[in-house]
């Protein structure tokens, strides 16, 4: 009986995965790694009795709905989580993505991680096309960068950048960039 219930649960899970998701073409077959399971399940599938159907419905979702890695695997290439984000939401996401201990503040280590992460994903023009990653800033350079960031952006002097300080610094940088661009256009009209 337990084996039968387990088999029904597995079959239900397999069939739940073969449905299409928003953005997936219903005429295309599901992903290859599920095809073998679906074919095997179809060969073994028999109509469950009503008691088994209720058990199957009660188990739909549950822990499987919380399996983040498995869900990401299915959504890869289909959903861009940043697609409909406003600039403010993107900034919030960026800040939280680098707040590794989730305390609402960025410390020096988290700032170093953010800088090196950005540096590796955005190499300078001299490293485009190279198969080698660009060299990371030295410890001294990183220390100088972090000291500068904290000096400029840590408005309350507590040694951290909280989200409010991050937003204020971002706005000031955007305003400085606009002023600089306006000055350049005034000096060099087209």
Task: Please describe what this structure looks like.
The structure is a single chain. With 190 residues, the chain is mainly α. The chain has 2 domains: 74 residues, no CATH class; 101 residues, Recoverin, domain 1 (Orthogonal Bundle). It is 59% helix and 2% strand. It has a two-stranded antiparallel ribbon with strand order 1-2. The N terminus is likely disordered. It comes from Panagrolaimus sp. JU765. This is EF-hand domain-containing protein.
List its salient traits.
mainly alpha, EF-hand domain-containing protein, single chain, 2 strands, two-stranded antiparallel ribbon, disordered N terminus, Recoverin, domain 1, 190 residues, 2 domains
Please provide a brief summary of the model.
This protein has 190 residues and is mainly α. It has 2 domains: 2-75, no CATH class; 87-187, Recoverin, domain 1, CATH 1.10.238. The chain contains 8 helices and 2 strands.
SSE topology sketch:
Layout: H1 2-17, H2 32-44, H3 50-59, H4 68-75, H5 87-98, E1 105-106, H6 108-121, H7 139-153, E2 161-162, H8 163-187
Antiparallel strand pairs: 1-2
Task: Classify the fold: give the CATH topology of the largest domain.
Answer: Recoverin, domain 1
Q: Just name the CATH architecture of the largest domain.
A: Orthogonal Bundle
The main β sheet shows up as: 2 strands, antiparallel
Provide the residue-averaged pLDDT. 72
Strand order of the largest sheet: 1-2
Order of helices and strands: HHHHHEHHEH
CATH superfamily of the largest domain: EF-hand
Count of DSSP helices?
8
CATH class of the largest domain: Mainly Alpha
Shape: globular
- The total strand number stands at 2
Radius of gyration based on Cα positions = 26 Å
Report the helical percentage. 55-70%
How many independent structural domains?
Answer: 2
Q: Ranges with pLDDT <50 over ≥5 residues?
A: 1-45, 52-60
> Which structural class fits the helix and strand makeup?
mainly alpha
Distance between the termini: 82 Å
Organism: Panagrolaimus sp. JU765
Protein name: EF-hand domain-containing protein
